[in-house]
Fold these 2 entries.
Entry 1:
Amino acid sequence: MMELLLVLVPLLAAALAYLFRGARARAAVLVGTAAAHTVGVGSFWVRPIATRSASWLMADDLGLLVLSVVSVLFLVVSFYAAAYMRAETPRGGRAFVSCLLAFLAATSLVAVSQHLALLWVGMEATTLAIAPLIYSRNDRRSLEAVWKYLMLSSVGIALALLAVFFLAAAQLGDEGSRALLVPDLIGRADRLDPRWLRAAYVFALVGFGTKMGLAPLHSWKPDTYGEAPSLVGGLMAGALTTCAFLALARFTQVVTAAGLQSFARPLLIAAGLFSLLVATAFIVGQSDIKRLLAYSSVEHMGLLVIGLGVGGVGAYGSVLHLINNGLVKGMLFLVVGNLVLAAGTSVVADMRGMQRTRPISGWLLLVGLFAVTGSPPFGLFLSEFSIIAGAVHEHHPWVAAATVAMLAIIFAGIAGMIVEVLYGEPSSMAPDAEPRERAPYVLGPAVLAGLVLLLGVYIPGPLRAVIGRAAGSLGGTTP
Amino acid sequence: MQLLLLLVVVTDFAVLGTSRLSACIRWMAVQGAILGLLPLAYGGAITAHAYGLAAGTILVKAVLLPWFLKWAIREAAIRREVEPRVGYMASMLFGAAALGAAFGIASTTRAFPRHDLIVPVALVTVMIGLVVLITRTKAITQVVGYIMLENGVYLFGLTLSRRVPFLVEVGVLLDVFVGIFIMGIVVFHINREFDSISAANLSELREA
């Protein structure tokens, strides 16, 4: 019941927000809905899973984690957006808030769907809800970005639908099971036709991999993140990719239950390593900070599938990394958004010396640098360490070595750029009038940074249990 | 039933070989209409489910989408040529190869009766849709290619229509409709911005 509300309420609020004329009222609807959503998700953490009815919509362990990340991130972004809409006037006006809320509804649907076709409907809806937000500046570059994004993700998602149908075809021999329901697929996995199942998995990896932005299907990512407003980029890198990973993880659950890990895992490791390689190549020498973040997102998607591919402790690390990555990406995009708004560009050469003009955002960016590169004591250190430890433990020493080497290069690349942005000598001496920073712009990122730090030093018991069970369903073990 | 499926293949090749944009869209509409009739012809008993699916499909794929795309061409005053990147003859040859490959793949699967054409036809429509998508330079022809790709996936879904609930099909149909609608609007903007809807102009964003 609560699951249904989490989808329907944002959807109704999206319609409601469109009806309001005043910008202030729309912002109130946005923040209010986001807060209500977070409270609703919080209620799941109180109630044990057994009392929830099993049906099409149910937040299981993995779904609950994704739902929580999305909800917290969206709450922070909604406060930011309320302030942003007062200062800037994003194109689309009334539709801006409606699209954001529709995005929340669609991501919630993905997170709680136990029916894979319904999950697909939600996944496609996320694409459609976010596309108008990318095109917020009326110019050629953002037009090109939105076209590339629409075409690539539409084709990807069409192939993912084919994957869903292939999975249904794998079920045809088993008349007793309900079609495409995850519990039935996992519970009766031994009766699935393995050939259709393999085909389904390959298509799911390509289809949802496009939405995640795994190399070589990542080409929309730098363009889209580079052109979209920062808060939209944060939602995409933090929430949308998380949902796409969940979709791939659902297929992985089924394949694991059917005993085909030996088929799926090499595919995942190959896709992950290639993503890391591409990210490394383009992070070094990158000249635009938003595009840098996009390649960093490619890197983290690669890490996620590597963890899934090595299994064992790696899968646990992957699930933990899913949470950390969602939070830290949201934080970084908002902070970088502050600096880009101040400098008027995201080209590094023109935004040096930001520490002086925007000290609080500057500090937050420095924190974000250490968090996103997986330095202790942040949560990403733990999750990346688990993934690498998993690789060693599951007899993939070369995967572990390659990952560590590339992470080191990426650290150097990101650190070099961020130091230049913060402490570099400004090329033109025209600092804007007031180095004053408004609270909504820095409070949200600070909260997210605090959460990532907390996850690095202490994971609460209930959260640890849920992560452990979610990893278990993906063929993982808790360290 | 089998005749309708053969007609789908004919429309696939018609889109592949035609040079006029409006003809391209008309063939796409014909394909949509055939797809709409298929649920009635497929699988014996005609239920309310089959009627609903047929009506929804015909409405979206044979009426609304073609009408919307034609509106977009008219409003944006797009030149009528398709402008392929690969010649028509080469496209046709590729289509023929895809047809052979599709039958080859389909004959190796056991899940469906051998004489059933629907799986190979679905696969060939997906492949030809991809070809149109990749080899045409105009944004609007890329949309046509995407619709064909989607049609192929939909055809495959028909084989499972008794097991996949109605609500889901409606959701899929709605998503596709909204997706194309947004694409259409973007096409419109591209045309206004660049004075042409050639997606080849969209090459400003790249690594320096």
Entry 2:
Amino acid sequence: MADEEKLLKRMNVNFDRCKGCGLCVTACPKKIIEIQNEKLNSKGYYTSRCIDDDKCISCARCAIMCPDCAITIKVIKK
Amino acid sequence: MSNQSSPKKHLMKGNEAIAEAAIRSGCKCFFGYPITPQTEISAYMAKRMPKVGGVYLQAESEIAAINMVYGCAGSGVRCMTSSSSPGIALKAEGISYIAGSDLPCVIINVQRGGPGLGGIQPSQSDYWFMTRALGHGDFHALVFAPASVQEMVDTVCDAFDLADKYRMPAVILADGLLGQMMEPVHFPEDYDFNKNTEKPWAANGHGNKRKHNIINSLFLQPDVLEDENFKRFKRYEIVKKNETKAEIDIEEDTELLVVAYGSVARIAKAAVDMARKNGIKAGLFRPITLWPYPEKELQKAAEKVKKVLVVEMSMGQMVEDVRISLKSRIPIEFHGRTGGIVPTPAEVFEKLKEMDGDDNA
Amino acid sequence: MIMPSYTIPKALCDVPTHYCPGCTHGIIHKLIAEVIDEMGIEGETIGICPVGCSVMAYDYFACDMMEAAHGRAPAVATGIKRGNPDKFVFTYQGDGDLAAIGTAETVHAATRGENITVIFVNNATYGMTGGQMAPTTLPGQITQTTPYGRNTDIEGFPVKICEILSQIDGVALAQRVTVIDPNTIKTAKAAIRKGFEYQKNKQGFSLIEVLSTCPTNWGLSPVESLNWVKEKMIPYYPLGVFKEGAIR
């Protein structure tokens, strides 16, 4: 992922820290989080990701819900 | 101890002297639970601690009391608890955690008779418990066996210093007799209530100045746990080398060596004196540290003797350490009373006469 | 302009935890760490871990930590606090630890009004040992040691800690919360903060009971577990403040 692109992401998931539990999915008011089933992390979990950054409102509910401190949130003001 | 010519003497009960000595050794917190025959320690602490800015707290159980000691010691504060045999049994769990976390503290055991609820009279039947199995796992505690009220004071002071030095629990193993008897004592003149050695390992708040300290005895990796135990036992080797203590009263021609500790050693001393007056060549060996056991000192003292008599207020517990030390090279006999019965000098003297007679027959 | 709006609290070490996926221990750890950060007290705080799933929490909190024997954390906390009255001391205990083997230590620390904060994680099972009946296991709940469901005629009834503590004069705060969605998490954090504030002002013993999940031993998915708390646990263990007010 290009640095520029990374900067634009609001929901950042620490790929190797995520255990794919899906609690963030339940917390998202915009329903834009999913557990991907393409790539396992080093611990053997499919991880969560935001599927529509444009819809993300940086409310941080996913991060608050994450038991593993795997999610950090940025607010991007254009 | 001060060597001044006329130190101030106080007439005190053994239990009270222990408490005062602890305070003067910088013991800041005392956590207790009532049990006969040690309750005077708690009562004294309850009275004195608030006056010197220390903490006295009566816990809800012996288990809680020793865990308070664990927490307090882990935060780097000099602290102590006291109990008597059945109560010490309840503390075994906490003592193991203290040893496993390499924490210093002082534990007083004013022994009473057992097993079970036993009785409240003097006994020495916790010898194995204190020196062999003070809790689960591989560990030792320093064990001191004072024989007088003055020595209670001296060993308490040593116990705090050595516990800090070697980061291990120290036990004062007294009995109901020593706890209750009154004798004149003097205290160290260099009263320093704030005496507390530097403890960089303590969990007392890192103040944003260092990495966090963890006080812990859990090591799930077998090689790590083994290494922890190896390190601890290496330290024990140093303790064994440097910290054994005994009082030896023998003469060039001593043939019968009496081995006894604590209050029984004083009874044995009276018996030895009676024997000497009656022409029996008797001597006395009195271990002051029970762990580490003064093995080398005993071997040296027993070099030329013909027989050894071990006297205890138990069914025979320390006698095993005497056998280990002397490797059964000389005949070792045992005389014990139990259940709270204190042996008399006369009966020990009778035993010595008997042994001397066997020898001359 | 890019601003971080949610970051990891400093009072947590930057390490992965050993907790199962979806276990809410991690959320509760984070809340405590956030409170420690917000109050700026990491350097003056000593935490005590229990025996149970959170036995290794000493590796996760960045403040000084001590590991206690099973159930003894309130006694250990008492020892630390009495020796260091100006430091912050908290215990982190599970239901087996606090409400079974450590009941005496819990109740008596509370009666003394010990100035400590107890975080009590109630997930109705012994997680670490593989899901046996806990003192807080619900009537009818199936566990490894209640394979036919907890029968109250045989195994008795669950222990309601907040209700018990509400009768004790030394308690400044007894509150039950949960962490099953962002709103309840917010309330839980506020309760933990209150507990630490009572401690700061030397106003007595505080206990925050957190209804938590154990997806692995409940045999449910992490998301189903959140619902189980809502549907089964909360009706038996109602949320709310059971006692509040400075005792000194």
